[in-house]
Design brief:
It contains seven helices and ten strands. It is an alpha/beta fold and 247 residues long.
């Protein structure tokens, strides 16, 4: 069963169009983990990560500001940053900082199982302009999510969290389509159709827009459904066109 806390997309496709550049562009690295702000992460949840040493994965930290925050707070954090595959990437120096040694992999979200073959994470998070907007089509988007879901602990409490629109819809391939059409994937409809458990977390950002929403997709559902396997099958053989639109 799903657990949405907002408008249901079951009857009619609706999208929230972001004005101008995506909302996330204004907020990278501007989250305060310590007070439970980022992506709706609560203080007691952060405290549990600190006390247990539970491994947490951040996808696409960019210049590493949010990743450094996690490490400074004592979280056993690791990260994937595909930009490090490019010699002239502006984050090369920042992400090669000594304190990050052994915790950074130059890989995409889809490649998470390859670079973390024996590691399983309690939670995965992605903030800012991230894997969504570098996915060239709906299959690439779903494949990226599948990669992250695969490296989560196979438990009903493990989740992948990232920002979505008010209605849960995800924009993708934005960076390759600046000034052109906006591609949208109706993620809640996909999750509901495949009986994948999810929930929303509303939170506030110190930069506009103030009110934001994150989705948490759980690896396992109450009926035993494994989201990692479902996303992987959909990326390779599913019909995803029913969940997409452009405007």
């Amino acid at each position: 069963m799903t657990s949405p806390e907002g408008p249901s997309p079951e009857s009619e496709f609706s999208v929230t169009r972001f004005s101008g550049r995506p909302d996330w562009l204004t907020s990278r690295g501007e989250f305060e983990f310590e007070h439970g702000l980022a992506l709706g992460i609560e203080a007691d949840e952060l405290r549990a990560w600190q006390q247990t040493g539970a491994p947490v994965l951040e996808v696409g930290p960019g210049m590493g500001a949010s990743f450094k925050q996690l490490l400074d707070l004592g979280v056993n954090a690791y990260t994937l940053e595909p930009g490090l595959n490019y010699d002239r990437a502006p984050n090369q120096e920042a992400m090669r900082a000594p304190e990050f040694e052994g915790r950074v992999q130059a890989a995409t979200a889809a490649d998470a199982p390859l670079v973390f073959p024996d590691q399983r994470f309690t939670a995965a998070i992605a903030m800012g302009v991230n894997f969504q907007n570098y996915s060239q089509n709906e299959y690439a988007l779903v494949n990226q999510i599948a990669g992250v879901m695969e490296v989560l602990e196979p438990a009903d409490s493990s989740y992948f969290s990232f920002e979505v629109g008010d209605d849960g819809v995800v924009t993708y391939d934005f960076m390759n389509n600046v000034g052109r059409e906006v591609n949208c994937f109706d993620l809640p409809a996909f999750l509901q159709a495949h009986h994948i458990r999810y929930e929303y977390r509303n939170f506030e950002s110190p930069k506009p827009p103030k009110h934001r929403r994150a989705i948490r997709i759980f690896r396992q559902s109450e009926d035993g459904a494994d989201a990692a396997a479902i996303f992987a099958r959909a990326a390779s053989s599913g019909d995803l066109s029913r969940y997409t639109t452009a405007f």
